[in-house]
């Protein structure tokens, strides 16, 4: 029962109605052996009193950056260093925006800047505020900076709306903390992931490529790293930062990605082909820039097939990793995905419909169904960061 024995959790509460659940959350964390230091924003104190939080946590609440008495006992830098985990629950749209902008205009946001402890963000707000593109971009920014995003749940809201934005229930947050401090799902596993598009040169200044942003592959790499895996990410040209702790190999063309994949596949347990590899490349790459001609209105480029990277990994006879592909389709998603699973000899395939607006290529969210021999699981529509955790859980169940 004392699953969190000795763990130091800094609970940052910002001003949302879900703050009333923080007393229960604190009780449950302490019951499991955690030490909980509560930090409240000014607005949070409108929803639950510092006296309540002091009583349940057994520690005075910290709420001011400029209080000489508080600074003399445990100053803000000391507090930031004390924590094993910073849990922001509820995290309002305002707190998320301030963190995304890197602001330090109160004690809580300053602590987030000053800590090197992992930070978990549990968003809670009205569904329209949550779905607002600014909030979505801010959450994506925090996620890229390696903060863990826990929730939100969807359902009926305090304001009467129905939709996503409910803070996870206290016991769900406790479970997340237990998972975080417990043995990691991918501990001892090594994974290699391909991500992004490839570029197939036509001449020194032109190429053929596609709209892949690399977001899904990068989210998978980040999640695997957080789940304890040793991660190698083979990336085509994208503008995304490398997730913390991930080894990145940059490639440009499908042939380069093929070489990097084969060089790495056999020394890893799991291979995920998330890259949108160009199926064909120009047969000849002109050594000089191709010029427009006055006498011809058309131009032909002869294309040759690129190697199928994932199929070559899946056909390895020795030290073959568990191989997972992606199928981005615009129609007959299930049929095409199952066909690819068989034809490429994959262990699993994650299929999504990229014809639906706001989903798939270049977007922050996705809807995925995972298929394997004799089974399937719909992972629903969610942020790519959330989905990637669900994909790793599904893979872990299959390799167990
Ligand atoms: O055949 P299709 O491109 O739709 O298959 C998608 C899956 O195959 C993805 O996992 C993708 O990364 C992989 N693939 C590959 N090499 C190719 C083409 C696709 O690894 N040349």
What does this protein structure show overall?
- It is built from 14 helices and 19 strands.
- With 400 residues, the chain is α/β, with parallel strands linked by helices.
- The protein has two domains: 8-181, Rossmann fold, CATH 3.40.50; 190-399, 3-Layer(aba) Sandwich (Rossmann fold).
- It has an eight-stranded mixed beta sheet with strand order 12-11-8-13-16-17-18-19, sandwiched between helices. Strands 2-1-3-4-5 form a five-stranded parallel beta sheet, sandwiched between helices. The protein has a two-stranded antiparallel ribbon with strand order 6-7.
- It is elongated and about 80 Å long.
- The relative contact order is 0.09.
- The chain binds cytidine-5'-monophosphate.
- Cytidine-5'-monophosphate binds at residues 194, 254, 273-275, 277, 279, 306, 308-310, 325-327, 340.
């Amino acid at each position: 029962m004392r699953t969190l024995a000795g763990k130091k959790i800094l609970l940052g509460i910002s001003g949302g109605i879900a703050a009333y659940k923080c007393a229960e959350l604190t009780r449950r964390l302490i019951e499991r052996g955690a030490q909980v230091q509560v930090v409240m924003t000014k607005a949070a104190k409108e929803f639950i009193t510092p006296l309540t939080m002091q009583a349940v946590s057994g520690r005075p609440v910290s709420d001011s950056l400029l209080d000489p008495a508080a600074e003399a006992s445990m100053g803000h830098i000391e507090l930031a260093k004390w924590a094993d985990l910073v849990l922001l629950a509820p995290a309002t749209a305002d707190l998320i925006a301030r963190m995304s902008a890197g602001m330090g205009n109160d004690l809580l946001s300053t602590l987030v800047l000053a800590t090197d402890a992992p930070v978990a963000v549990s968003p809670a707000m009205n569904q329209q505020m949550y779905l607002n593109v600014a909030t979505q971009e801010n959450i994506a920014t925090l996620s890229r900076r390696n903060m863990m995003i826990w929730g939100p749940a969807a359902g009926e809201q305090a304001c009467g709306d129905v939709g996503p934005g409910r803070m996870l229930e206290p016991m769900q947050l406790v479970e997340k903390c237990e998972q975080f401090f417990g043995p990691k799902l991918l501990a001892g596993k090594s994974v290699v992931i391909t991500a992004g598009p490839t570029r197939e040169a036509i001449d020194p200044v032109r190429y053929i490529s596609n709209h892949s942003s690399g977001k899904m592959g990068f989210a998978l790499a980040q999640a695997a790293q957080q789940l304890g895996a040793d991660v190698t990410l083979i990336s085509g040209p994208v503008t995304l930062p490398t997730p913390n702790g991930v080894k990145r190999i940059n490639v440009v063309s499908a042939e380069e990605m093929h070489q990097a994949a084969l060089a790495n596949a056999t020394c890893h347990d799991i291979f995920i082909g998330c890259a949108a590899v160009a199926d064909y490349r120009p047969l000849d790459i002109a050594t000089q820039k191709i010029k427009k001609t006055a006498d011809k209105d058309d131009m032909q480029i002869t294309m040759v097939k690129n190697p199928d990277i994932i199929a070559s990994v899946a056909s390895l006879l020795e030290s073959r990793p568990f191989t997972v592909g992606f199928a981005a389709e615009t129609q007959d998603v299930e049929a095409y995905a199952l066909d690819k699973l068989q034809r490429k000899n994959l262990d699993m395939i994650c299929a999504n419909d990229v014809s639906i607006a706001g989903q798939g290529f270049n977007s922050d969210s996705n809807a995925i169904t995972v298929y394997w021999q004799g089974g399937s699981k719909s992972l629903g529509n969610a942020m790519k960061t959330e989905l990637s955790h669900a994909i790793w859980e599904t893979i872990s169940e299959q390799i167990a």
